[in-house]
Amino acid sequence: MIISGLQEYLGEAPPSRVLAFAMRELFPGRIAAVSSFGADSAVLLHLVAAIDRATPVLFIDTGRHFAETLDYRDRLSAYLGLTDVRTIGPTADEVARFDADTSRAVWDPDGCCAFRKTAPLQRALQDFDVWITGRKRFQALTRLELPVIEPDPPHIKVNPLVRWSAADLAAYVEEHRLPQHPLLARGFASISCAPCTSPVHPGEEARAGRWRGFDKTECGIHRPGATGK
Ligand code: SF4
Predict the structure, then answer these.
(1) What is the SS3 assignment for 34?
(2) What's the CA-to-centroid distance between 177 and ligand 1, angstroms?
């Protein structure tokens, strides 16, 4: 089935159906979820775990995360019973070569994301044909057109939550009593590395606290040229 046919078939389906069809029928053994274990991650991971707790989950440890995020990764994984959470990241040699003094996020965030996030993920994705993301259309103007099934050669991305709102996510969290990232209570609506994440003010979009002061809206793992960038 071609991408456009899949999009037509699954574009209006609820997230649980999208995931079940993708994980069980379309791409069994070839699919991984990618999670930041950030503000909204519990919803996607709960949906994935309900279908198969042994699904590979890739977490990029950039080396610059909040301690709360690493703790939340461990607590949420245990809570959901996830059995194959794979922590990936830059090698020690890459850190020494590209950001020995850890200042790169300040003067070259694109370069910092490239070696700390994008390269490790691309290496890990060599074992898969398809990856699941938790992106939503409401998060940013740059995501308004995100499809459920997204070509990302040589991979395909499945975005089951694109149509959900912040209220939908909150209702799901409450219904299933999911543990929340501790920084949410301190105003962090979208959470990435500590040097590049700040609280969001009333009226701002969810990702406004990311790379504040820079003309940068995406870390690069969702590459320019693909839909929704
Ligand atoms: S989000 Fe910031 S610290 Fe993290 S990899 Fe990107 S530039 Fe570096």
Answers:
(1) strand
(2) 31
CA within 13 Å, CB half, 96: 3
Q: What is the pLDDT of residue 25?
A: 95
pLDDT tens-place string over residues 50-70: 999 999 999 999 999 999 999
CA of 105 to the centre of ligand 1 (A): 5
The binding-site residues of ligand 1, defined as CB within 6 angstroms of any ligand atom, are: 62, 64, 105, 109, 112-113, 116-117, 192-193, 195-196, 219
Contact indicator for 196, 217 with CB cutoff of 8 Å: no
C-alpha–C-alpha distance, residues 146 and 125, integer Å: 21
CA–CA gap between residue 179 and residue 134 (Å, rounded): 17
pLDDT given at position 229: 31
| Rounded CA separation 196/200 (Å) | 12
- Please say if 219 is a catalytic residue: yes
Question: Which atom number of ligand 1 is nearest to the Cα of residue 192?
Answer: 1
Confirm whether pTM is higher than 0.70: yes
Provide the token pair at 28.
């069994």
pLDDT tens per residue, range 116-159: 999 999 999 999 999 999 999 988 788 888 999 999 999 999 99
Quick one: CA dihedral 174, 180, 186, 192, positive or negative?
A: negative
Instruction: Please report, in angstroms and rounded to a whole number, the separation of the first and last CA atoms in the chain.
Output: 25
